[in-house]
């Protein structure tokens, strides 16, 4: 029973130690979850901050990129304008206010070599309608819209004004709605099939459109024009031919195109018209009788072909582009740093979330292990209670049994004394018995001998009696025989009495021997019980010693932490009523319950010790590190190129 109780106690003690370990583990795991959650919260805050910063830098980068795109678009637009600006550079000395130079042939060659048309990419996209030529049933006759007539007129006027500026003339080309109508009327109403001037149309325009004071016309064959770029190229080379290869016409065309015809006039109204039946291009210039009527609707803006302003504008735009590019570089660097920080923060968040998940799993497992340990403790405590009840029942009877044992010991002592006396008496009696038995054997032998003697005497008596009867002197012989017979009978009785006495002595000795043996058996039984109790006490003592050893081991595995006059358990809870001696902790009853440790194992304990305003001299603080996962944000930007439509 006691062994069962001891085993049950050991199991309970082991279970309690296991529950303590599992509780500590569960507490640590809960602390780890809490710390991991804090790490996640911190990482989330950091990630959100990084996300906000990244969004801000991304927005600034987008704005900087947009600004660069706009600046680049402006630079490209100006470059496109510069690259698509067609002007005609006049050779030095080509003309003066007094007239054209005398060496125009040589200057013309220079002019042709110096100038070349530049394709206009935008103009390439503008289609020109072509009508079928009845002569060959091919679509080749140009049909300009009103806007296209205005566009080619203004484009040409810009080149012509630049020529006048180079030559130092004060007159300038102007374009109005009336000048466009003027040129279109001449083209639409020309009936001459060849490359010649139509005088009738030139005269009728003054009557039907606008009264004029001075008028000049140069014409040339343009051919089928599929795009505005084709038309511009045709007009450009017609002007080059008229300016630099016009000797056959006595440089008459050059006089008009260069502005010499209107050298003394401030304004030179201008328009281009294309004859619908043969694609002949007419350069019409005039000065009206009534300028106010010619200006009805306002003068149209003529684009400048002087790239000086554009070059200055390009320099400014390029500087602005450089500034914004630098800002873009800075914004990109800031955004790269922010995106890198965001990536790091997201990675840290993923790591922290992973750590939290792992900590939660570990806590769940620790809680499960703790519940299992508690269940096992409950089961073993029930077993211990049952075993303790049995031990208590045994212990309750122990006093009686101890009293009985003492009584038995007393009886045993007396029995031992009686046994010694009985054994001594028995020895004497056994000796007497042996002696009596020997005497009995001797008496028996004597008896047997006496009986034989009696028998022999009887026989002899009988014989003598027989002889007595036959003898006359038989009486003396008879008396002698009878005397012998009587003596034999007396001897026989004496022997029988001796035998009876010896038998009585033997019986008495045997009875004492049996009694002594019975007392010896009783004493031996008592002695056996005493020996059994002594063995039980020895086993109990051994179990108690083992329990003490187990308690010492448990105490050595139970750590307390001392700071100043305060004592804390492993969970950081201050405990009282314990005494510390030589780094060992004893309860109020003097039982060893634990040892003082200097190694701080938990955050709760660390906080408790910190709260007590001191820490042990040595030891470690266990910390939990967390990190993060990664989320990536892509930044997209759209680059667009918008070209300003040149008016």
Helix fraction bin:
55-70%
Order of the strands making up the biggest sheet:
11-10-9-14-13-12
Instruction: Please give the number of β-strands.
Output: 14
Largest sheet: 6 strands, mixed
State the separation between the terminal residues, measured CA to CA: 117 Å
* Beta-strand proportion: 5-15%
Contiguous low-pLDDT stretches (5 residues minimum) are: 615-647
Query: What count of helical segments does DSSP give?
Result: 12
Q: Mind explaining what this structure looks like?
A:
The protein has 647 residues and is α+β, with helices and mostly antiparallel strands. 66% of the residues lie in helices and 10% in strands. It has twelve helices and 14 strands. It has helices at 2-84, 104-114, 121-124, 146-167, 177-188, 199-208, 228-244, 252-258, 291-294, 307-470, 474-557, 603-611; strands spanning 95-96, 99-100, 129-133, 138-143, 172-174, 212-221, 267-274, 280-288, 559-563, 566-568, 574-575, 579-581, 584-586, 592-596. The strands form four sheets. A six-stranded mixed beta sheet has the order 11-10-9-14-13-12, with helices on one face. A four-stranded mixed beta sheet has the order 5-7-8-6. A two-stranded antiparallel ribbon has the order 1-2. A hairpin with a 2-residue loop joins strand 9 (559-563) and strand 10 (566-568). Helix 4 runs parallel beside helix 7 (228-244) and helix 10 runs antiparallel to helix 11. The longest helix has 164 residues, at 307-470. The protein is rod-shaped. Residues 615-647 have low confidence and may be disordered.
């Amino acid at each position: 029973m006691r062994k069962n109780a001891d085993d049950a106690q050991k199991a309970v003690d082991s279970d309690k130690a296991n529950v303590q370990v599992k509780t500590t583990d569960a507490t640590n795991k809960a602390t780890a979850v809490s710390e991991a959650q804090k790490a996640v919260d911190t990482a989330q805050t950091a990630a959100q901050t990084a996300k906000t910063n990244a969004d801000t830098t991304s927005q600034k980068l987008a704005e900087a990129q947009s600004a660069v795109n706009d600046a680049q678009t402006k630079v490209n637009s100006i470059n496109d304008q510069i690259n698509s600006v067609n002007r005609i550079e006049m050779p030095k000395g080509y003309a003066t206010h007094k007239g054209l130079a005398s060496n125009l042939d040589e200057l013309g060659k220079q002019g042709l070599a110096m100038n070349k048309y530049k394709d206009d990419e935008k103009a390439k996209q503008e289609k020109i309608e072509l009508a079928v030529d009845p002569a060959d049933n091919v679509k080749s006759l140009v049909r300009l819209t009103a806007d296209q007539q205005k566009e080619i007129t203004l484009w040409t006027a810009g080149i012509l004004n630049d020529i006048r500026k180079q030559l130092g003339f004060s007159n300038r080309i102007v374009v109005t709605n009336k000048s466009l109508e003027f040129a279109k009327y001449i083209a639409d109403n020309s009936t001459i099939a060849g490359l010649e001037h139509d005088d009738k149309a030139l005269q009728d325009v003054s009557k039907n459109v606008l009264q004029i004071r001075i008028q000049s016309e140069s014409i040339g064959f343009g051919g089928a024009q599929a795009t505005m770029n084709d038309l511009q190229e045709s007009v450009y080379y017609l002007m080059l031919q008229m300016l630099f290869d016009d000797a056959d016409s006595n440089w008459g065309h050059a006089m008009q195109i260069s502005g010499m015809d209107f050298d003394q006039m401030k304004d030179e109204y201008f328009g281009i018209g294309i004859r619908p039946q043969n694609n002949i291009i007419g350069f019409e210039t005039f000065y009206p009788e009534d300028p106010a009527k010619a200006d009805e609707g306002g003068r149209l803006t003529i684009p400048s072909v002087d790239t000086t302003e554009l070059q200055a504008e390009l320099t400014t735009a390029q500087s602005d582009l450089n500034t914004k590019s630098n800002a873009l570089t800075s914004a990109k660097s800031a955004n790269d740093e922010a995106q890198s920080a965001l990536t790091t923060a997201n990675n840290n968040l993923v790591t922290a979330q992973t750590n939290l998940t792992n900590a939660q799993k570990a806590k769940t497992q620790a809680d499960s292990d703790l519940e299992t340990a508690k269940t096992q403790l409950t089961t073993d405590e029930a077993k211990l209670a049952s075993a303790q009840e049995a031990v208590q029942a045994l212990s309750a009877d122990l006093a009686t049994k101890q009293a009985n044992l003492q009584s038995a010991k007393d009886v045993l002592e007396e029995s031992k004394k009686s046994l010694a006396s009985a054994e001594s008496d028995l020895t004497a009696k056994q000796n007497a018995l042996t002696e009596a038995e020997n005497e009995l054997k001797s008496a028996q032998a004597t008896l047997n001998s006496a009986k034989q003697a009696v028998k022999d005497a009887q026989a002899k008596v009988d014989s003598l009696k027989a002889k007595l009867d036959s003898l006359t002197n038989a009486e003396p012989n008879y008396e002698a025989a009878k005397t012998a017979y009587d003596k034999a009978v007396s001897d026989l009785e004496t022997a029988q009495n001796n035998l009876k006495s010896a038998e009585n002595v033997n019986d008495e000795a045997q009875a004492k021997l049996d009694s002594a043996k019975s007392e010896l058996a009783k004493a031996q039984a008592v002695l056996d019980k005493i020996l059994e109790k002594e063995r039980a006490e020895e086993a109990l003592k051994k179990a108690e010693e083992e329990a003490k050893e187990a308690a010492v081991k448990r105490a050595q595995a139970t750590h307390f932490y001392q700071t100043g006059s305060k004592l804390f358990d492993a969970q950081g809870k201050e405990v009282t009523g314990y005494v510390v001696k030589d780094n060992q902790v004893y309860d109020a009853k003097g039982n060893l319950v634990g040892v003082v440790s200097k190694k701080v194992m938990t955050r709760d304990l660390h906080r408790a010790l910190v709260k007590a305003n001191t820490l042990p001299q040595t030891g470690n603080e266990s910390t939990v590190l967390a990190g993060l996962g990664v989320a990536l944000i892509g930044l997209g930007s759209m680059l667009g190129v918008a070209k300003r439509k040149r008016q």
